[in-house]
Amino acid sequence: MTSAATRPTDPDRLWSVDEHLEDILTTVRPLEPIELQLLDAQGCVLVDDITVPVSLPPFDNSSMDGYAVRVADVAGAGEEFPAALEVVGDVAAGAADLVRVGPGQAARIMTGAPIPPGAEAVVPVEWTDGGLGEGPVDGMRARSLAPEGAEGHVRVHRPAEAGAHVRAAGSDVKAGDRALEAGTILGPPQIALLAAIGRGTVRVRPRPRVVVMSTGSELVQPGEALGHGQIYDSNSFALTAAARDAGAIAYRVGAVADDADTLRSTIEDQLVRADLLVTTGGVSVGAYDVVKEALASVGDEDEAGGGVEFRKLAMQPGKPQGFGSIGPDHTPLLALPGNPVSSYVSFELFVRPAIRTLMGLEDIHRPSVRATLKADKALRSPKGRRQFLRGTHTGGEVTPVGGEGSHLVAALAHADALIVVPEDVESVEPGTDVEVVLLG
Fold it and tell me: In which element (H, E) is residue 124 found?
Protein backbone atom coordinates (compact mmCIF):
# COMPACT_ATOMS: atom_id res chain seq x y z
CA MET A 1 0.00 0.00 0.00
CA THR A 2 1.29 3.44 -0.94
CA SER A 3 0.87 5.89 1.93
CA ALA A 4 0.17 9.59 1.72
CA ALA A 5 3.73 10.34 2.81
CA THR A 6 5.48 8.11 0.27
CA ARG A 7 3.24 8.90 -2.71
CA PRO A 8 4.64 11.53 -5.10
CA THR A 9 2.66 14.69 -4.48
CA ASP A 10 1.63 17.47 -6.82
CA PRO A 11 0.62 20.62 -4.90
CA ASP A 12 -1.53 21.72 -7.82
CA ARG A 13 -3.37 18.43 -8.17
CA LEU A 14 -7.10 18.56 -7.47
CA TRP A 15 -8.22 15.39 -5.72
CA SER A 16 -11.75 14.10 -6.07
CA VAL A 17 -13.87 13.39 -3.00
CA ASP A 18 -13.84 9.69 -3.82
CA GLU A 19 -10.05 9.56 -4.21
CA HIS A 20 -9.46 11.23 -0.87
CA LEU A 21 -11.96 8.97 0.89
CA GLU A 22 -10.47 5.85 -0.71
CA ASP A 23 -7.01 6.88 0.48
CA ILE A 24 -8.33 7.22 4.03
CA LEU A 25 -10.19 3.92 4.03
CA THR A 26 -7.26 1.94 2.61
CA THR A 27 -5.05 3.30 5.39
CA VAL A 28 -7.31 3.06 8.44
CA ARG A 29 -7.70 -0.45 9.87
CA PRO A 30 -10.17 -1.82 12.44
CA LEU A 31 -8.92 -1.86 16.03
CA GLU A 32 -7.80 -5.17 17.51
CA PRO A 33 -10.50 -7.11 19.44
CA ILE A 34 -10.51 -7.20 23.23
CA GLU A 35 -12.57 -9.04 25.87
CA LEU A 36 -14.75 -6.69 27.92
CA GLN A 37 -17.29 -6.91 30.72
CA LEU A 38 -20.81 -6.40 29.42
CA LEU A 39 -21.34 -2.82 30.55
CA ASP A 40 -17.89 -1.83 29.33
CA ALA A 41 -18.81 -3.25 25.91
CA GLN A 42 -21.74 -0.88 25.38
CA GLY A 43 -21.39 0.87 22.02
CA CYS A 44 -18.72 -1.58 20.85
CA VAL A 45 -18.95 -3.89 17.85
CA LEU A 46 -19.27 -7.63 18.39
CA VAL A 47 -16.45 -9.67 16.86
CA ASP A 48 -17.96 -13.18 16.94
CA ASP A 49 -21.40 -14.69 16.49
CA ILE A 50 -23.00 -15.46 19.86
CA THR A 51 -24.76 -18.82 20.25
CA VAL A 52 -27.41 -19.36 22.90
CA PRO A 53 -26.17 -21.88 25.52
CA VAL A 54 -29.51 -22.15 27.35
CA SER A 55 -33.06 -21.62 26.12
CA LEU A 56 -35.00 -18.52 27.12
CA PRO A 57 -37.02 -18.90 29.14
CA PRO A 58 -35.30 -22.02 30.46
CA PHE A 59 -38.58 -23.38 31.89
CA ASP A 60 -42.32 -22.93 31.44
CA ASN A 61 -43.35 -19.98 33.60
CA SER A 62 -46.35 -17.78 34.33
CA SER A 63 -46.87 -14.49 32.57
CA MET A 64 -49.47 -13.39 35.13
CA ASP A 65 -50.19 -13.33 38.84
CA GLY A 66 -52.97 -15.86 39.29
CA TYR A 67 -53.63 -19.54 39.75
CA ALA A 68 -52.05 -22.54 38.01
CA VAL A 69 -54.84 -24.94 37.08
CA ARG A 70 -55.77 -27.99 35.04
CA VAL A 71 -57.81 -27.14 31.95
CA ALA A 72 -60.53 -29.70 32.66
CA ASP A 73 -61.16 -28.24 36.11
CA VAL A 74 -62.11 -24.79 34.78
CA ALA A 75 -63.94 -25.85 31.61
CA GLY A 76 -67.35 -24.18 31.52
CA ALA A 77 -66.58 -21.87 34.46
CA GLY A 78 -68.57 -18.62 34.51
CA GLU A 79 -69.75 -15.80 36.75
CA GLU A 80 -72.93 -17.66 37.72
CA PHE A 81 -71.33 -21.08 38.13
CA PRO A 82 -67.64 -20.62 38.98
CA ALA A 83 -65.25 -23.54 39.33
CA ALA A 84 -64.32 -24.09 43.00
CA LEU A 85 -60.75 -25.38 43.41
CA GLU A 86 -58.67 -26.35 46.41
CA VAL A 87 -55.59 -24.12 46.78
CA VAL A 88 -52.65 -26.39 47.61
CA GLY A 89 -49.89 -23.78 47.97
CA ASP A 90 -47.90 -20.88 46.58
CA VAL A 91 -45.43 -20.86 43.68
CA ALA A 92 -43.17 -17.79 43.73
CA ALA A 93 -40.57 -16.69 41.21
CA GLY A 94 -37.36 -18.58 41.92
CA ALA A 95 -39.16 -21.46 43.66
CA ALA A 96 -37.39 -24.81 43.49
CA ASP A 97 -39.67 -27.14 45.42
CA LEU A 98 -42.97 -27.07 43.53
CA VAL A 99 -46.34 -28.29 44.74
CA ARG A 100 -48.20 -30.69 42.46
CA VAL A 101 -51.57 -29.64 41.08
CA GLY A 102 -53.98 -32.56 40.98
CA PRO A 103 -57.62 -32.85 39.85
CA GLY A 104 -59.78 -30.17 41.46
CA GLN A 105 -56.74 -28.26 42.71
CA ALA A 106 -54.93 -24.98 41.98
CA ALA A 107 -51.71 -23.32 43.09
CA ARG A 108 -51.40 -19.59 43.63
CA ILE A 109 -48.66 -18.49 41.24
CA MET A 110 -46.68 -15.30 40.67
CA THR A 111 -45.41 -13.77 37.44
CA GLY A 112 -42.20 -15.49 36.34
CA ALA A 113 -42.69 -18.50 38.61
CA PRO A 114 -42.28 -22.00 37.12
CA ILE A 115 -45.46 -23.84 36.19
CA PRO A 116 -45.96 -26.57 38.82
CA PRO A 117 -46.32 -30.23 37.84
CA GLY A 118 -49.86 -31.15 36.80
CA ALA A 119 -50.89 -27.59 35.88
CA GLU A 120 -51.68 -26.80 32.24
CA ALA A 121 -52.66 -23.12 32.29
CA VAL A 122 -52.75 -20.00 34.42
CA VAL A 123 -55.90 -18.03 35.16
CA PRO A 124 -55.22 -14.38 36.09
CA VAL A 125 -56.21 -13.44 39.62
CA GLU A 126 -58.71 -10.98 38.11
CA TRP A 127 -60.68 -14.01 36.83
CA THR A 128 -61.09 -15.30 40.38
CA ASP A 129 -62.38 -14.29 43.80
CA GLY A 130 -58.82 -14.41 45.13
CA GLY A 131 -59.88 -16.97 47.71
CA LEU A 132 -62.13 -14.45 49.47
CA GLY A 133 -65.39 -16.15 48.60
CA GLU A 134 -66.83 -13.04 46.97
CA GLY A 135 -66.79 -11.58 43.41
CA PRO A 136 -63.80 -11.02 41.11
CA VAL A 137 -60.83 -9.23 42.71
CA ASP A 138 -58.43 -6.65 41.31
CA GLY A 139 -55.24 -8.20 42.65
CA MET A 140 -53.60 -10.67 44.91
CA ARG A 141 -53.07 -10.06 48.62
CA ALA A 142 -49.44 -10.11 49.78
CA ARG A 143 -48.53 -13.38 51.44
CA SER A 144 -47.10 -11.52 54.42
CA LEU A 145 -50.49 -9.93 55.03
CA ALA A 146 -52.60 -12.97 54.27
CA PRO A 147 -50.64 -16.22 54.57
CA GLU A 148 -53.90 -18.13 54.49
CA GLY A 149 -54.27 -17.02 50.85
CA ALA A 150 -52.17 -20.01 49.82
CA GLU A 151 -54.69 -22.38 51.36
CA GLY A 152 -58.42 -22.92 51.27
CA HIS A 153 -60.40 -22.57 48.06
CA VAL A 154 -60.58 -20.22 45.09
CA ARG A 155 -63.46 -19.67 42.70
CA VAL A 156 -62.56 -19.27 39.02
CA HIS A 157 -65.06 -17.33 36.87
CA ARG A 158 -63.65 -18.03 33.38
CA PRO A 159 -62.26 -21.07 31.55
CA ALA A 160 -58.70 -21.27 30.23
CA GLU A 161 -57.17 -23.11 27.29
CA ALA A 162 -54.03 -25.21 27.58
CA GLY A 163 -50.97 -22.96 27.69
CA ALA A 164 -52.95 -19.83 28.56
CA HIS A 165 -50.72 -17.21 30.21
CA VAL A 166 -47.78 -19.60 30.13
CA ARG A 167 -44.44 -18.54 28.67
CA ALA A 168 -43.16 -21.78 27.18
CA ALA A 169 -39.53 -22.80 27.58
CA GLY A 170 -37.54 -21.66 24.54
CA SER A 171 -40.31 -19.37 23.29
CA ASP A 172 -37.82 -16.46 23.21
CA VAL A 173 -34.70 -18.24 21.94
CA LYS A 174 -33.68 -21.89 21.96
CA ALA A 175 -30.36 -23.38 22.94
CA GLY A 176 -28.14 -23.49 19.85
CA ASP A 177 -29.80 -20.50 18.18
CA ARG A 178 -27.66 -17.57 17.07
CA ALA A 179 -28.40 -14.79 19.53
CA LEU A 180 -26.33 -12.00 17.93
CA GLU A 181 -24.31 -11.74 14.73
CA ALA A 182 -20.74 -10.53 14.47
CA GLY A 183 -20.76 -6.84 13.53
CA THR A 184 -23.64 -5.98 15.85
CA ILE A 185 -23.29 -2.75 17.81
CA LEU A 186 -24.03 -3.56 21.44
CA GLY A 187 -26.78 -1.34 22.82
CA PRO A 188 -28.93 -1.87 25.92
CA PRO A 189 -31.21 -4.55 24.37
CA GLN A 190 -28.22 -6.55 23.09
CA ILE A 191 -26.47 -6.33 26.45
CA ALA A 192 -29.70 -7.48 28.12
CA LEU A 193 -29.79 -10.53 25.85
CA LEU A 194 -26.15 -11.38 26.55
CA ALA A 195 -26.78 -11.17 30.28
CA ALA A 196 -29.96 -13.26 29.95
CA ILE A 197 -28.07 -16.11 28.30
CA GLY A 198 -25.35 -15.97 30.95
CA ARG A 199 -22.54 -14.12 29.18
CA GLY A 200 -20.46 -12.06 31.60
CA THR A 201 -17.90 -10.90 29.03
CA VAL A 202 -17.83 -10.53 25.27
CA ARG A 203 -15.18 -10.07 22.58
CA VAL A 204 -15.54 -6.75 20.77
CA ARG A 205 -13.63 -4.12 18.89
CA PRO A 206 -13.28 -1.20 21.31
CA ARG A 207 -14.76 2.19 20.63
CA PRO A 208 -12.09 4.33 18.95
CA ARG A 209 -10.52 7.11 20.99
CA VAL A 210 -10.73 10.30 18.93
CA VAL A 211 -8.95 13.49 19.95
CA VAL A 212 -10.37 16.70 18.46
CA MET A 213 -8.56 20.03 18.52
CA SER A 214 -9.17 23.35 16.79
CA THR A 215 -6.52 25.91 15.97
CA GLY A 216 -6.60 29.68 15.85
CA SER A 217 -5.48 32.52 18.12
CA GLU A 218 -8.87 34.15 17.56
CA LEU A 219 -10.77 31.32 19.28
CA VAL A 220 -12.23 31.76 22.75
CA GLN A 221 -13.75 29.14 25.05
CA PRO A 222 -17.58 29.50 25.26
CA GLY A 223 -18.54 31.17 28.53
CA GLU A 224 -15.60 33.56 28.46
CA ALA A 225 -15.69 37.19 27.36
CA LEU A 226 -14.94 37.97 23.72
CA GLY A 227 -12.24 40.46 22.87
CA HIS A 228 -11.99 42.49 19.68
CA GLY A 229 -11.49 40.22 16.67
CA GLN A 230 -12.27 37.06 18.62
CA ILE A 231 -14.92 34.38 18.11
CA TYR A 232 -16.09 31.42 20.14
CA ASP A 233 -14.63 28.02 19.37
CA SER A 234 -17.57 26.03 18.01
CA ASN A 235 -15.75 23.58 15.73
CA SER A 236 -14.13 21.51 18.46
CA PHE A 237 -17.50 21.13 20.20
CA ALA A 238 -19.28 20.20 16.97
CA LEU A 239 -16.69 17.64 15.92
CA THR A 240 -16.35 16.09 19.37
CA ALA A 241 -20.12 15.67 19.51
CA ALA A 242 -20.11 14.26 15.97
CA ALA A 243 -17.37 11.77 16.87
CA ARG A 244 -19.38 10.56 19.85
CA ASP A 245 -22.46 10.30 17.66
CA ALA A 246 -20.46 8.13 15.27
CA GLY A 247 -19.61 5.75 18.13
CA ALA A 248 -16.23 7.00 19.33
CA ILE A 249 -14.93 7.96 22.74
CA ALA A 250 -14.06 11.56 21.92
CA TYR A 251 -11.82 14.00 23.76
CA ARG A 252 -11.95 17.71 23.09
CA VAL A 253 -8.76 19.75 23.41
CA GLY A 254 -9.10 23.49 23.95
CA ALA A 255 -8.27 25.73 21.01
CA VAL A 256 -4.55 25.94 20.25
CA ALA A 257 -3.02 29.29 19.29
CA ASP A 258 -1.43 29.90 15.90
CA ASP A 259 2.02 28.75 16.98
CA ALA A 260 3.60 25.73 15.31
CA ASP A 261 5.70 24.70 18.33
CA THR A 262 2.70 24.85 20.68
CA LEU A 263 0.53 22.89 18.27
CA ARG A 264 3.25 20.31 17.68
CA SER A 265 3.74 19.80 21.41
CA THR A 266 -0.02 19.51 21.99
CA ILE A 267 -0.44 16.91 19.27
CA GLU A 268 2.49 14.85 20.58
CA ASP A 269 0.99 14.95 24.10
CA GLN A 270 -2.34 13.67 22.78
CA LEU A 271 -0.94 10.69 20.87
CA VAL A 272 -0.95 8.52 23.99
CA ARG A 273 -4.76 8.51 24.13
CA ALA A 274 -5.65 8.67 20.45
CA ASP A 275 -6.63 6.07 17.89
CA LEU A 276 -7.47 8.97 15.56
CA LEU A 277 -6.57 12.66 15.67
CA VAL A 278 -8.76 15.35 14.10
CA THR A 279 -7.69 18.97 13.72
CA THR A 280 -9.75 21.81 12.36
CA GLY A 281 -8.34 25.04 10.94
CA GLY A 282 -4.91 26.00 9.71
CA VAL A 283 -4.85 23.93 6.51
CA SER A 284 -5.32 26.63 3.90
CA VAL A 285 -2.70 28.88 2.33
CA GLY A 286 -2.65 31.79 4.79
CA ALA A 287 0.49 33.01 6.56
CA TYR A 288 -0.92 31.84 9.92
CA ASP A 289 -2.17 28.44 8.82
CA VAL A 290 0.22 26.61 11.13
CA VAL A 291 -1.13 23.05 10.99
CA LYS A 292 0.95 22.34 7.90
CA GLU A 293 4.06 23.74 9.55
CA ALA A 294 3.49 21.86 12.81
CA LEU A 295 2.71 18.51 11.20
CA ALA A 296 5.76 18.69 8.99
CA SER A 297 7.90 17.54 11.94
CA VAL A 298 5.62 15.98 14.57
CA GLY A 299 6.31 12.57 16.11
CA ASP A 300 8.36 10.07 14.13
CA GLU A 301 7.63 11.42 10.71
CA ASP A 302 10.83 9.93 9.33
CA GLU A 303 9.59 6.39 9.89
CA ALA A 304 8.32 4.62 6.79
CA GLY A 305 4.72 5.45 6.11
CA GLY A 306 4.52 8.44 8.46
CA GLY A 307 3.62 12.05 7.68
CA VAL A 308 0.63 14.10 6.64
CA GLU A 309 -0.17 15.26 3.12
CA PHE A 310 -2.19 18.40 2.47
CA ARG A 311 -4.44 18.46 -0.56
CA LYS A 312 -6.97 20.42 -2.54
CA LEU A 313 -10.23 18.61 -3.17
CA ALA A 314 -12.74 19.19 -5.94
CA MET A 315 -15.54 19.91 -3.48
CA GLN A 316 -17.40 22.82 -1.94
CA PRO A 317 -17.26 23.47 0.93
CA GLY A 318 -14.08 21.81 2.19
CA LYS A 319 -11.48 22.25 -0.54
CA PRO A 320 -8.36 22.18 1.74
CA GLN A 321 -7.82 18.83 3.50
CA GLY A 322 -5.00 16.95 5.15
CA PHE A 323 -4.53 13.26 5.85
CA GLY A 324 -1.78 10.95 6.99
CA SER A 325 -0.33 9.28 10.07
CA ILE A 326 1.93 10.53 12.82
CA GLY A 327 3.89 9.27 15.79
CA PRO A 328 5.52 5.91 16.54
CA ASP A 329 2.24 4.03 16.18
CA HIS A 330 1.34 5.79 12.91
CA THR A 331 -1.83 7.24 14.40
CA PRO A 332 -4.18 8.43 11.62
CA LEU A 333 -4.75 12.18 11.48
CA LEU A 334 -7.31 14.08 9.48
CA ALA A 335 -6.81 17.83 9.16
CA LEU A 336 -10.05 19.63 8.33
CA PRO A 337 -10.64 23.23 7.25
CA GLY A 338 -11.62 25.80 9.86
CA ASN A 339 -14.85 27.26 8.50
CA PRO A 340 -17.68 25.66 10.53
CA VAL A 341 -19.71 24.27 7.65
CA SER A 342 -16.60 23.10 5.77
CA SER A 343 -15.39 21.40 8.93
CA TYR A 344 -18.67 19.61 9.62
CA VAL A 345 -19.25 18.50 6.03
CA SER A 346 -15.68 17.20 5.92
CA PHE A 347 -16.30 15.25 9.12
CA GLU A 348 -19.39 13.58 7.69
CA LEU A 349 -17.65 12.66 4.43
CA PHE A 350 -14.26 11.55 5.76
CA VAL A 351 -13.95 11.33 9.56
CA ARG A 352 -17.17 9.49 10.29
CA PRO A 353 -16.35 6.67 7.83
CA ALA A 354 -12.86 6.44 9.37
CA ILE A 355 -14.33 6.08 12.86
CA ARG A 356 -16.79 3.43 11.71
CA THR A 357 -13.94 1.58 9.99
CA LEU A 358 -11.90 1.60 13.22
CA MET A 359 -14.94 0.10 14.94
CA GLY A 360 -14.97 -2.77 12.47
CA LEU A 361 -18.31 -1.92 10.91
CA GLU A 362 -19.19 -2.71 7.30
CA ASP A 363 -21.85 0.01 7.01
CA ILE A 364 -19.69 3.09 7.47
CA HIS A 365 -21.60 5.75 5.53
CA ARG A 366 -24.64 7.85 6.24
CA PRO A 367 -27.72 6.65 4.32
CA SER A 368 -28.28 8.27 0.94
CA VAL A 369 -31.65 8.64 -0.78
CA ARG A 370 -33.15 10.36 -3.82
CA ALA A 371 -35.49 13.30 -3.23
CA THR A 372 -37.23 16.02 -5.18
CA LEU A 373 -35.67 19.46 -4.88
CA LYS A 374 -38.09 21.98 -3.43
CA ALA A 375 -36.74 25.49 -3.96
CA ASP A 376 -37.75 28.95 -5.19
CA LYS A 377 -34.97 29.08 -7.76
CA ALA A 378 -32.30 26.93 -9.37
CA LEU A 379 -29.27 25.90 -7.31
CA ARG A 380 -25.94 27.01 -8.75
CA SER A 381 -22.78 24.96 -8.38
CA PRO A 382 -19.20 25.61 -9.57
CA LYS A 383 -18.12 23.50 -12.50
CA GLY A 384 -15.82 20.64 -11.60
CA ARG A 385 -16.70 20.72 -7.86
CA ARG A 386 -18.97 18.37 -5.96
CA GLN A 387 -21.11 20.65 -3.86
CA PHE A 388 -22.78 19.76 -0.57
CA LEU A 389 -25.65 22.07 0.39
CA ARG A 390 -27.50 21.97 3.69
CA GLY A 391 -31.15 21.00 3.53
CA THR A 392 -34.19 19.62 5.31
CA HIS A 393 -35.62 16.33 4.08
CA THR A 394 -39.24 15.30 4.53
CA GLY A 395 -41.80 13.32 2.58
CA GLY A 396 -39.52 12.61 -0.36
CA GLU A 397 -38.64 16.30 -0.79
CA VAL A 398 -35.57 18.27 0.20
CA THR A 399 -35.43 22.03 0.78
CA PRO A 400 -32.20 24.05 0.92
CA VAL A 401 -31.43 25.75 4.25
CA GLY A 402 -29.35 28.94 4.40
CA GLY A 403 -26.91 30.18 1.81
CA GLU A 404 -23.72 28.80 0.35
CA GLY A 405 -21.34 30.47 2.84
CA SER A 406 -19.14 28.05 4.78
CA HIS A 407 -19.44 30.15 7.95
CA LEU A 408 -23.23 29.87 8.35
CA VAL A 409 -23.54 27.86 11.57
CA ALA A 410 -27.18 28.80 12.22
CA ALA A 411 -28.33 27.24 8.93
CA LEU A 412 -26.32 24.11 9.70
CA ALA A 413 -28.15 23.73 13.02
CA HIS A 414 -31.48 23.50 11.17
CA ALA A 415 -30.35 21.04 8.49
CA ASP A 416 -30.87 17.30 8.63
CA ALA A 417 -29.48 16.47 5.19
CA LEU A 418 -26.85 17.35 2.60
CA ILE A 419 -27.94 17.99 -0.98
CA VAL A 420 -25.28 16.61 -3.34
CA VAL A 421 -24.65 18.40 -6.62
CA PRO A 422 -22.28 16.37 -8.86
CA GLU A 423 -19.10 17.79 -10.38
CA ASP A 424 -20.54 17.96 -13.90
CA VAL A 425 -23.72 19.83 -12.89
CA GLU A 426 -23.73 23.64 -12.71
CA SER A 427 -27.45 24.23 -12.17
CA VAL A 428 -30.23 22.22 -10.52
CA GLU A 429 -33.79 23.31 -11.25
CA PRO A 430 -36.63 22.99 -8.70
CA GLY A 431 -38.42 19.66 -9.10
CA THR A 432 -35.22 17.86 -10.07
CA ASP A 433 -34.45 14.48 -8.50
CA VAL A 434 -31.28 14.87 -6.40
CA GLU A 435 -29.06 12.77 -4.15
CA VAL A 436 -29.50 13.50 -0.45
CA VAL A 437 -27.26 12.37 2.41
CA LEU A 438 -29.33 11.98 5.58
CA LEU A 439 -27.62 13.32 8.70
CA GLY A 440 -30.17 12.38 11.35
Answer: strand 121-124
